[in-house]
User: Fold these one by one.
Assistant:
Number 1:
Amino acid sequence: MTVAALTLLLLLPQVEARRSAAQEASPRAPLVSSSVANDLSPPLRILTGIPAPLNAVREMTRPGRVPRSQAAGASALPSGVDPVLQITQGSTPMPVPILSFDGLSNADNGAVLGGGAVPPDTTGDVGPNHYVQMVNTVLAVFDKAGRRLVGPVPSSNLWRGFGGPCEQTNDGDGIVLYDHLADRWLVSQFALPNFPAGPFFECVAISQTPDPTAVYFRYAFLMSTTKLNDYPKFGVWPDAYYMAINQFTGVTGQPAGQGAVAFERDKILVGQPARMVLFEDVFPGQPFVQGLLPSDLDGAPPPVGAPNYFAAFRDDALGFSSDQLQIFEFRANWANPAASTFTGPTSLTTAAFNSNLCNFALILDCLPQPGTTQRVDAISDRLMFRLQYRNFGDHEALVTNHTVDVDGTTHAGIRWYELHRRGGGWSIHQQGSYAPDANHRWMGSIAMDGDGNIALGYSVSSSSVFPSIRYAGRLAEDPLGKLSFVEATLIAGGGSQNGANRWGDYSTMSVDPTDECTFFYTQEYYASSSPAGWRTRIGSFRYPSCGQPKPTPKEEKRRKLTETQRQQKERTNALGLDDYRTEGNVMEVDLSGAIPRVVIANIDGLEVVRLECDGGCPEIHVGDYLEADGVKENEQLFDAENVTVRHAKVRLR
């Protein structure tokens, strides 16, 4: 139920968009305040059945956005097909779901509250024993077998007896996160008691124990009296709970900049009054520039003192110097909150992308569905939740995604990224745009397991495919930039949304903290066509290799040697080379039946010798040679062009 969900690619005057990256981050001092109320709730499990308010849907029309031709002219890239587009499926089937069950639905809103909401804003997370899910405007707790333990409960019931707007309103835009560092649950939604006028609040609850059905420390934070805190997105970090908000002027609903927030985690975890640090309008003078996400920690904590990283993408179509990711650093200073800093950006040039789906239309009817002229919004103007962070020891990693037009024909696909940091700055380790057929894929959420394997979940639809939930992925050792597994279906849709264009506005891919291997994904779908009868699905899966003992360097070398020998045998047999034998890690090949051209090359990061048979014969890839035609260690021979080599001994790596 996003209020005026206006971000990144809105009507942006060229004079603003063309500011240099170095000018973007705000140097201004933060606003520091304390929670306006806090207490301890009754157990959530006894708060069922208590009526709660159902507020009117908090949606406003987005203003028109600048077409590429007006923002940056014909120079905006790409001019055609996405340069990192993956147009085929992988070769190995994705793991099938371990669990797949229905979560909350709009029917639950009707049963509990007597009304409904579109879109659902589907979110959820997994802990050691539970899965907690939240939509507009109800929540539920499941065990990890998919049995519902609590709910559907009106989301505002978590603040029942708290008083004030957190109890008296039920406005949505919820987020659920499991804080594995503390073994606690975070649940939040905003409160807009006088919408569209202020004041505007964020309601935050943290479980007192690992049990999400029990009691919570509850908080109300006044975000602003004049600026609405739309699309709040959270990230767990050791020193704070961080949040990004898109701000809008009360009453008029005009964009009013990007907000970045830190909540005092140490105090919240023990139920004490807590402080909040807020940087408003972090891009001064650019109220239309929004779309940040905070990083959300999985696994090992970051290095001591590390800032929380915020990220956004920028499209050259809006006048930026290039298509890019921007990384910012938020350092909360609880000893002196006024000294907290929000700095950046570090700009990382990406492969060219086109985030302009449906010409940034005023009307959000964009992606087709079967059996209806109603189209749904692609929300291609922002990074999609989450910006997941992992610390692998030798490097840190971030993964994220957004929706793009992959070929200039309003063909929605998902651009995904893995960023690395090895003691210095961030860099793009790999990226790709996933659109392996003519269907549209959007509303993605991406995560990485403890082994570095990636899973991406998303919606998929076309004029012949009902909106469905699918997922794809890759292993850490797979070729970069490719989702190497054939996508799997969590559930096939049975109908279209034929009464509204809003879809999403987000979904959530999580990783089970108990094994760091099992992915959980939640997303919306329709079982049958209706104006607003959305359902949600919750599913889990894991890669079989995750968590298995990793080979030692010697074992990995031996594995590569064995695989290389196998490949060489196949290729030499294809060449008709009769004399082929190996001893240890040395392969001896009789090349008397061919006249190859020999070139030193770098294959997959290893220095190798590439022997190519004239006439386009299959290649032979081998390691550095020992001798050729009886001349030992003769590198000049192997570098020479058009040399006839009758016999070679080569060392395999």
Note: The first strand starts at residue 31 and ends at 34.
Number 2:
Amino acid sequence: MKKSIAATATILLFCSVASALDDTPENRSMQADRYVAAMPAKEMMNSFVGQAVPKDAPAQQREGLLEQIKCVDAVSLEKAMKEAMTKDFTADELKALADFYGSPAGKSAMKKHYAYLADLMPAIMTEMKKAQVKWMQARMKTMPAEAGDPAQEGEPKHQVPAPQK
């Protein structure tokens, strides 16, 4: 039984290593192209406006954003996407992204992604406000007492010289 488990683990390890792409600029570029084909810039932008703009936003605001998106230079944006992706991700990571976003499940998930972010944003903002309060409280505890503070014993640390006459 132990030999069977060891053999299976070895085969799985070999398969995962064997299927790894060489992390070359060419492979990164090829996988980035696959990603952009699965996630075109115009489609991403339209999805963003369709889902991120509040449902109760005035129709004029929604229409204005849709009109602005028509003016987006998709070629330029996709070029920037590819440059950033090939800089930040390995060939295998880009392949995984392209595989996922090119799949039916990935396409479906992406259509819901901005709605998810819009739903999550109030919780993120609430937590950030709480964190800011905690940070400020901790910071106030570490700041030196003000000169002349009655709670401070002895001479103030920072004395302002008297004006000279």
Note: Residues 2 and 8 are 10 Å apart (CA to CA).
Number 3:
Amino acid sequence: MVHQLASHRAPAEPQLVYVPGTDQRLAVGAVPPLMLQVFRIPKQGGLAIPVSVEQLQTIPFTASYITIDDYMSPVVTNEEEDLDRSIALLSSIGSFRQRISVSTLLNDIVLDGHHLESLTQQYLARLEPAMAELLRSQLDTQDGNPRVLLSRQGVLTAIREIIRRYDDEREDIGPTLESTIALVHAVSVTLYDRERSHRDDPTMEDGKNRPQMEFIRSHIFYQQNSELPQLARCYLLWTKYGDSIVRTSSPCTPTELLAKATGLDIQDLFAFGFAMLSPRIARDELSSWSADQMWITKSYFPASVDQELLDSFLSLVSANPATLIEEFDKSDSPWNFLPFQKWPVLRVGDQYLILDLVFFLERITDGLFYDVNTYEKNISEQQRNVWTQVYGEMLELYVADLVRMLAPRDLATGGRFVYMEEHFREAFSGKICDTGIDYGREFCAIEVVSGRVKVETRVTGQVDSFDDDTERLVIDKARQLHEISLSILDNEAALTGTDRVSGREIVPILVNVGSYPVNHLSTSVIQRRLDEEGLLQDSRMVPLSIISIYELELLLLILESSGQTVPCILRAWQESDLVNMPLYVFLYTNSYLSEADGRRLWPVAQEDIVQLVIDRLGLAEDHGVPI
């Protein structure tokens, strides 16, 4: 279906494609933008999608990643038996510590386009001339579609293979950069092909659905955030907004529940987490990166740190190889990185290694929700349900504050033209909306959805699961927005106290917390469902905008820097050729923001976190832990 939309031809056999995102516009003109994702804050990311060779020629600004059969086919074939032997050999070279160190170093490098390009040139220089020339020809841009050396999915798959061979020690030789990259290229061949044999999943038997779900999983996997702003947002959620819960009755505050679930308070979690993360994100030039320096021990932390609390933190975020192997053996989906998400730090003896920076950041921020969720569920399902309501209220309070700052000021009273849930309930006999902004001609009706995309969608790629996610995370909220929009249009005076505004338009906005992908595929599904139910079809309603909390924060930055309002920006997005991409792709592509702007989010909270690390760890500001 996707291929036919793009080129009006039937798709050929799918291949894996990596879509990079460094200063590139990913869709132009009449080309239907597929679900492409850009990561400009702070580093390059990308998207792995299956696409045929013919389709590559129809989608500009895409790039495939290299696999081993692209330039080593005389040495390593892609026959499954030969490929398995090659993977086993390449993932067993040298000691386990050496293997995992070099592969983790590659995983850091692949997150940054500049470093990845430098690595590519180094790798080409080390290959035999004939092989280097063949690889260089594969990397050269063809029809506007370049290729890249590595993908994060491929590197994490290589790390998974190395961990599975934990007991296979070979001390005679050590892994080289070349052998580790070759391992990534070997496992990259398997990322799509091996799933073909999984016929026990009825949703995957239908070949027409498999590429679409590969797109969806790729999009979700490659979503990222900037480190300090994400830490700052999480810190505010658990402290300021967690202490402001009024709607949901709970005997404990969120921070008290977190302490019960983890044995740590939020300050300890952030202090230890940021201290571990900071040296890995502080490196600049590729020459300063060393695999030997990837590991840390408890002596890395100041001696004054409470050792019991430190042990609790390390137990929370780390696992030994045996635990990871046991978890990975439960599923061999090429998107199954759940064990790394739960335990992003590898523990071997008294040494610790962050395997993936993105997962580590998620673990000490968004992942805290699941710690409490599991703790409460072990007590009772009722307590777990209360916790989800508490967390949802925390998010709504946070968004409400963002909305207040986005709303225009009433020059007569000094207040702002913003409305909260209680205002809607009173005005429209119980019909509610989380919040709204009156801009005069336009009225933004805003709903927050805190639900998460299910594992069956993002890991195993079940179509029914994605349909269910779409229903509960988007369509159900769209019904609510539709009802409140009609109420405002029919009797806005009940809410605003003023007569009907001439030319009034409703701007429905859904703020999505749970990583629901916004792309060509998902927006097509959503629009079809909206059309079938007649939702948000009134000519006085502009198309539904689905944005993330991060994108809502970016809209605030733009308002502060240029004065452009939310309706103005969303209208430009809806009218652009990037309408089926995430909002922030449009914002950066059209120079609404720069990379530096993204780091300005919540500067006071960022400063508080840095000071928290200094205070909790007993550091002088010139301590060796870079902060």
Note: The chain has three domains: 2-221, 227-376, 408-593.
Number 4:
Amino acid sequence: MDADPSEIRTESKAWILIGLTGSTVGRLVLEEGRLTFAARGIGALSGGHCRKLGTQCGVADLARRLVEEEEVLIFDEPVTTLRFTFPWYTFGGGMNVRTGDGRFRISFLRPANTALEVDVTGGAISEGRGLGRRWKALLTKAEQVAAGRRPRSG
């Protein structure tokens, strides 16, 4: 029996990285054949980082919304329209996602320049690398299912 794309679902805390020093936390979700990232809070983003990210995701008032702790949708795309890579230099703890409108660097490890939250539940090296492996496997499977190919087992 072929897998149903709607059955492949996962969600985790992740950080979107901009430039050398910009980052903010959010939720990365794979559900019903779509990959979404929603950011919350300004994190370590400067005004320039916010302008760049706002341009990529089409949100003109991104900085204001993040400062006000609104959840802001950065991207929401079908897996079949995305290109994703897991570069060696992230040591399994991050990935790059290319949408039709932009390129986004995602980390499953809390960047060192971000404020440590009191209730932090993610970002440890081993946990981040494990999440990277899990995301790689699930995105590959979701891409195969959406394209009508039988996913490889294992």
Note: The mean pLDDT is 85.
